[in-house]
Write a structure and sequence with these properties.
Length: about 160
Amino acid sequence: MEKVPMTSEGYIRLRDELKNLKFVERPAVVKAIAEARGHGDLSENAEYYAARDRQSFIEGRLAELEDIISRCEVIDIRKLKGETVTFGVIVEIVDEETNEVTSYKIVGPYEADISRGFISTASPIARALIGKRVGESVEVTTPNGAKVFNIISIAIA
């Protein structure tokens, strides 16, 4: 079984979602199905089919979350030194061509959210950055061609 790296914040977020689905969403959809059944003929009952679809989604997501949580390995980022780019650090880079500065937090695949600046350890840019130090340059192949980035800073989140 392959372990999945995760920050403690990511683990808590997944655990809370699991609890909500189990103890709030699942009972609510069971109640909705029971109410829809009480409306009579199921062959023309849109409420019943909508509730069953929602139940199917919830059960699938529960199975997925339980699998992820059983395989996650919570990494204590407070024990990191921040000398090189590793899991859990915030790295600030500059595009050497455009001088555009960007910050990314390196996280596990189930925590990645580019809108928040969280990139997965499996992403091309994270793979290029991991193990590098401040001042080093990395070349990353992007859909728009190769880009060269210089590491400005590394911080423990």
